[in-house]
């Protein structure tokens, strides 16, 4: 039980840090880093559940694989957007990107 | 009861947390990228500790590659990659702190006060794990895996499409 | 059957021809009359063989009409048709120069047909119908020259007086039918009628036969043409009353007969006096007719209808001859007044001789027909119950008759011969023919009278005392009359006699004026009644108008109110629509817009802000889940 709870707490803290970062950073890349952290925390959670609650259910591990895939994809697409943003406006600072206002 | 696993869990957990914290505390871009790498690696170590060998290895390998690329991108797009400018590049700090703390507290509360049932003790061997995972992928989760494959393909095409330069190659 | 039809329908057809075709009217009438004569001769022959012809045809329910050719009826029919034919011959000449031919000829043919119907009637209802028709024909004929006021007044007077008296006939016939149960004229009835019925019939006789007090219409009726006077008002129509008495004679009780006799006697005397004092030849003859009819009524009242029949037949021939003669005198001198007629007899000798013969017969000189008939009446008077009264009256009457006839002779013969204007050579032969034939009948009839009456089923009474006294009286009277030709007895009392005894102002004052006043009163009453009814009607109309106006206003008001009410509802509804729904929707739209606007504000476009929002939402969802699990 303690193992599980410890793991979960670790994951919670990681998630919180990631959320803080995603909300407070101005740079797109930094925001993405925060998101990556959050996803990692989620994965930790998942693995903890697998290990301590259902070790026979490998669909959990499948889930983790999918999450990992998502991480990678999100990174790829995000960086593609950042590249295009950088080309058009010269920086990737989210503070200035208010074109979608209103 | 304090077991090896617990100690290792705590150690690697703390490491992940500290490195994660460090990501957003430094002003140097490279250092935050490398911190993130370290955090990811620590998470992978956590996986290993929790006897999900395949996942752990996968995590470490993948994250290693990804963080490296991120570092490169950071250097491309960041204003102050070296972090020597000492600017506070954050906004809505209060909100974000509050959000982070709140979420942590909530999840922790959920983790502590939830009734998790019996804790499993037996875990298949790594050999067995891989075999079962493979069976899982190819039997039950075939659809998921295929979908994931298609999604990856879509993502690749999308990212390439987005990143194309319109100005230079208008006719492409 | 054919004879009956000929007798009655012949002249009726002639009348119809005259009215419809209007050609050869005089000869058509004569043909009709000859047809009637033929018919009656045939009937007479049948009767001599002993046949009584009866024809029954449909009439009222329970009262069929019947024509019955009894002995008396046949004889009377023969007399009527003979006299009429001869008068028609005369009239062709008389009316040749006069106006009003169409009316005259059609009327007189109608009269003949109706008279024959009356004579041959076998039931009371046909009798009454024929009575009415001859009254109507008399009205038409007296008014032949209707443009003269005298003539139209006279025809009105005659008709009205006859009508008043006809009430008696209706009551009497009603009583007869009630008593006997059928309308048949019975020769031997089972029971007589009451006094009231008898008096009612007597009233009718008094009217039709110009008895007192109904005698004044006959004098006035002389305003008609002379043939009319000759036929209707001497021989036939006035004789209808006598015929009524004859047919109803079996029904009269002895008490009723006394009344009859009294009326006859009074008439004889009063009208005889009028005739003596007349200054107009036709009026004298009219009064004489009343007097002679009085003789007949007296005879019936005495209980000897045979005498009445004899005098009826004799009088028919005599009086018509006298009238025809008077007519010729009138044509010659242009007037009927004694003043103008002086000496006319000497000029028109042929006419005068005929006139004289008839006049002597009337006075009662044998062997003329008049002697025999007057003698019969005197005998009847002798043999009657109140013999003294009846005989005296009859004898006095005979005296009077002789007096006025003598007077007429005297005036006509004596006097200066006036130069005449023109003599009508053309029409004289016709007139003479008619006149002289009649006179011949007068002269020779004495021989035939007895057998004729016997054939009729009656026997004439004869008495020596009557004969002698009659002769004496006649001779005396003629002499007195001859010398009493002084004209214009202007004393009041003679005028009283002459003008038909105007008592209390005469009919005009006693009856006519009050009736007119009464009529005026009724008229004004009815007018006021009408006005009242109109007033009611107008009041109701006004009420209706007022009601309709009120209703109109009320309806308009209600409808207006309903309309305005609906309008108000509509306004309210539109108002609520506007303010309520539209405003509501507008408000809704506005709020949505504002929401959107507010929402827009949230859309900062900044990534971190958006992220923050998603975190808020996530936290919120998390709390919800926690709560549900808890």
Summarize the entry for a quick read.
Chain B has 172 residues and is an all-alpha fold. In chain B, 72% of the residues lie in helices and 0% in strands.
Describe this structure in words.
The complex is a heterotrimer of chains A (102), B (172) and C (630). Chain A is mainly α. Chain A is built from 3 helices and no strands. The N and C termini of chain A lie far apart (50 Å). The relative contact order of chain A is 0.14. Helix content of chain B is 72%, strand content 0%. In chain B, helix 1 runs antiparallel to helix 2 and helix 2 runs antiparallel to helix 3. Chain C is mainly alpha-helical. Chain C folds into 3 domains: 242 residues, no CATH class; 249 residues, no CATH class; 106 residues. Chains B and C meet through helix 4 of B and helix 23 of C.
Features:
heterotrimer, A: 102 residues, 3 helices, elongated, B: 172 residues, mainly alpha
Percentage of residues in DSSP E strands of chain C: under 5%
Strand arrangement, major sheet of chain C: 1-2
> In terms of structural class, how would the helical and strand content of chain C be classed?
mainly alpha
How many domains make up the coordinates of chain C?
3
Low-confidence segments of chain C: none
Biggest interface, chains and residues, is: A-B, 74 and 88 residues
Distance between the termini of chain C: 143 Å
- Count of alpha and pi helical runs of chain C: 23
N-to-C SSE string of chain A, H for helix and E for strand: HHH
Largest sheet of chain C: 2 strands, antiparallel
Strand tally of chain C: 2
Anisotropy-based shape of chain C: rod-shaped
Quaternary structure state of the chains depicted: heterotrimer
Number of domains of chain A: 1
Could you tell me the radius of gyration of chain C in angstroms? 47 Å
What is the mean predicted local confidence, pLDDT of chain A? Answer: 88
Shape of chain A: elongated
Q: Fraction of residues of chain C in helices?
A: over 70%
H/E element string of chain C?
A: HHEEHHHHHHHHHHHHHHHHHHHHH
- Supply the CATH class of chain A: Mainly Alpha
């Amino acid at each position: 039980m303690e193992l599980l709870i410890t793991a979960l707490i670790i994951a919670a803290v990681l998630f919180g840090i990631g959320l803080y970062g995603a909300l407070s950073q101005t740079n797109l890349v930094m925001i993405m880093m925060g998101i990556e952290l959050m996803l990692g925390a989620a994965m930790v959670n998942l693995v903890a559940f697998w290990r301590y609650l259902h070790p026979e259910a490998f669909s959990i591990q499948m889930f983790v694989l999918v999450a990992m895939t998502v991480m990678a994809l999100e990174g790829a697409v995000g960086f593609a957007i950042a590249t295009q943003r950088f080309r058009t406006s010269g920086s990737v600072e989210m503070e200035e990107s208010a074109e979608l206002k209103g | 009861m304090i077991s090896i696993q617990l100690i290792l869990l705590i150690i690697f957990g703390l490491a992940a947390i500290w490195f994660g914290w460090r990501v957003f505390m430094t002003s140097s871009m490279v250092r935050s990228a490398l911190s993130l790498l370290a955090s990811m690696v620590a998470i992978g170590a956590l996986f290993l500790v929790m006897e999900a060998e395949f996942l752990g290895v996968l995590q470490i390998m993948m994250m290693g590659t990804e963080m490296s690329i991120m570092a490169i991108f950071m250097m491309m797009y960041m204003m102050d990659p070296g972090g020597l400018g000492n600017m506070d590049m954050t906004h809505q700090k209060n909100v974000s702190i509050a959000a982070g703390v709140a979420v942590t507290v909530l999840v922790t509360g959920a983790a502590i006060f939830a009734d998790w049932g019996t804790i499993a003790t037996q875990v298949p061997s790594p050999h067995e794990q891989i075999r079962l995972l493979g069976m899982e992928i190819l039997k039950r989760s075939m659809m998921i895996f295929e979908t994931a494959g298609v999604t990856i393909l879509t993502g690749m095409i999308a990212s390439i499409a987005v990143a194309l330069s319109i100005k230079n190659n208008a006719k492409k | 059957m054919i004879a009956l039809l000929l007798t009655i329908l012949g002249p009726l057809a002639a009348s119809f021809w005259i009215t419809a075709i209007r050609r050869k009217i005089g000869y058509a009438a004569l043909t009709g009359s000859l047809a009637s004569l033929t018919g009656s001769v045939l009937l007479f022959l049948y009767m001599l063989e002993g046949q009584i012809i009866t024809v029954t045809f449909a009439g009222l329910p329970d009262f069929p009409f019947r024509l019955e050719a009894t002995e008396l009826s046949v004889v009377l029919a023969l007399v009527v048709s003979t006299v009429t034919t001869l008068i028609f011959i005369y009239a062709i000449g008389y009316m040749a120069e006069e106006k009003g031919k169409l009316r005259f000829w059609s009327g007189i043919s109608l009269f003949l047909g109706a008279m024959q119907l009356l004579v041959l009637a076998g039931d009371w209802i046909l009798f009454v119908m024929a009575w009415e028709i001859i009254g109507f024909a008399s009205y038409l004929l007296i008014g032949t020259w209707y443009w003269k006021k005298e003539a139209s007044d006279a025809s009105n007077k005659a008709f009205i007086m006859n009508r008043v008296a006809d009430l008696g006939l209706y009551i009497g016939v009603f009583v007869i039918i009630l008593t006997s149960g059928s309308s048949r004229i019975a020769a031997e009835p089972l029971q007589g009628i009451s006094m009231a019925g008898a008096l009612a019939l007597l009233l009718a006789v008094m009217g039709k036969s110009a008895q007192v007090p109904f005698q004044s219409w006959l004098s006035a009726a002389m305003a008609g043409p002379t043939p009319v006077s000759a036929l209707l008002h001497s021989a036939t129509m006035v004789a209808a009353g006598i015929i009524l008495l004859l047919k109803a004679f079996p029904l009269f009780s002895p008490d009723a007969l006394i009344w009859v006799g009294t009326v006859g006697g009074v008439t004889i005397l009063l009208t005889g006096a009028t005739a003596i004092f007349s200054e107009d030849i036709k009026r004298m003859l009219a009064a004489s007719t009343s007097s002679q009819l009085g003789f007949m009524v007296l005879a019936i009242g005495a209980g000897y209808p045979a005498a009445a029949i004899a005098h009826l037949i004799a009088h028919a021939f005599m009086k018509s001859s006298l009238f025809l003669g008077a007519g010729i005198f009138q044509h010659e001198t242009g007037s009927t007044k004694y003043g103008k007629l002086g000496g006319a007899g000497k000029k028109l000798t042929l006419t005068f001789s005929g006139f004289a013969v008839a006049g002597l017969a009337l006075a009662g000189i044998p062997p003329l027909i008049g002697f025999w008939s007057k003698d019969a009446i005197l005998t009847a008077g002798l043999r009657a119950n109140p013999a003294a009264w009846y005989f005296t009256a009859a004898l006095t009457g005979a005296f009077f008759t002789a007096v006025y006839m003598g007077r007429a002779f005297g005036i006509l013969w004596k006097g200066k011969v006036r130069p005449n204007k023109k003599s009508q050579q053309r029409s004289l032969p016709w007139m003479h023919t008619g006149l002289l034939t009649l006179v011949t009948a007068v002269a020779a009839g004495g021989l035939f009278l007895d057998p004729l009456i016997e054939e009729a089923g009656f026997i004439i009474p004869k008495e020596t005392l009557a004969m002698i006294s009659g002769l004496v009286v006649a001779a005396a009277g003629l002499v007195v009359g001859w010398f009493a030709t002084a004209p214009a007895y202007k004393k009041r009392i003679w005028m009283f006699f002459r003008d038909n005894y105007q008592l209390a102002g005469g009919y005009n004052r006693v009856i006519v004026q009050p009736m007119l006043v009464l009529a005026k009163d009724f008229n004004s009453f009815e007018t006021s009644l009408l006005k009242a009814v109109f007033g009611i009607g107008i009041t109701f109309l006004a009420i209706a108008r007022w009601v309709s106006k009120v209703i109109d206003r009320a309806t308009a008001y209600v409808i207006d109110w309903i309309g305005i009410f609906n309008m108000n509802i509509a306004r309210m509804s539109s108002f609520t629509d506007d303010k309520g729904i539209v405003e509501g929707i507008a408000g809704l739209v506005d709020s949505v817009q504002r929401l959107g606007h507010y929402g827009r504000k949230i859309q900062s476009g900044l990534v971190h802000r958006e992220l923050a929002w998603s975190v808020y939402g996530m936290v919120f969802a998390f709390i919800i889940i926690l709560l549900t699990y808890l």
